[in-house]
Amino acid sequence: MTTSPLAELSTHVSTLKSRIVQAATLAELLADEPFIVGKRSILSTLQKSLGALAPEDRKAAGAELQEARRGVEETFALRRAELENAARAIALEADRLDLGDVVVAHVTAPLAVGHPGIVAATQRQLEDVFVAMGFTVSDGPEVESDWYNFEALNIPPAHPARGMWDTFYVDLGEPETVVLRTHTSPTQIHLMEEAVAAGTLPIHGVMPGRCFRRDTPDARHLATFHQIEGLVVDRGITFADLAGVIETFTHAYFGADISSRLRPAFFPFTEPSAEFEITCTICRGEGCRTCSQTGWIELGGCGMLDPAVLEAVGVHGDEWSGFAFGFGIDRCAQMRHQIADMRALIDNDVRFLRQFS
Ligand code: DAH
Q1: In a domain, 3, yes or no
Q2: Four-residue CA torsion sign, 37, 43, 49, 53
């Protein structure tokens, strides 16, 4: 009588199962797979040998082998699941971001993290420069009454100077009485009114914010833009203080090789008034297309507070004097980063925006 090919089956099964259990890593187990349950396994060899059996024995032997194989495969599947879970836990541990005590996330794909836009970043830098010079920062409403945006600033109704500001009117109240502010100057009025009411003069403040004009956007203008307003009300303030603040700011923000100059101009709320220009940052004063060959770029306006403005808010001109200035934040960003066309600021093209992270 020949020995059954399955005589050693239970020994083979135990050997295979202990090999499975001893595999320490998923890689090790998978590398062994062909030898345990695959074509090169003893179980496959035995399967082939069943062909030599007498047909009447073959069926029972086949069932026995099948049963044994199922047991080995089950052990294999269990161990595989166990090792897969362990591998996943290790990967998650490696990916875990700890921010202090807070476990934030299991990050499996890189996150696109945003950053402040170039105008917001510029505004913050400008605020920092002025805060370092002793100014406080305030903001004011974007929707203003005609009185704050124009009248209190010595621009009466129908005054030709209104043509300097192409205005968006808001459909509220009487026609043309509520506006989207055309400049940050009305915030000066709020600040002075509050200081007079609270008895907290003097004022050394800057007021950044969004402004609106019914302009067609071009390379140097946007219909929605940003300005920063400056206001000093104190005793004995002169034009020399104004010029000094402008020059100090220019060096602090644009660098030692960029200077400022003041040229006579007209604004209804200041007397005398000036235009505030800086050395062209593109050509460093040599003359180029951006500065129309002058070597200078206009940033904004400034001047000594007009007595009519002080009177409108109840500041006594015999005790207090002061100056104001206002200039474009977007223009500063354009000059500092040499952006040829300001409309790039509102195109929302991430390839442009990413350059300023
Ligand atoms: N508000 C003016 C404008 O937008 C700029 C300006 C000029 C502001 C003179 C001032 C100033 O405070 O004194 O055109």
Answers
A1: no
A2: negative
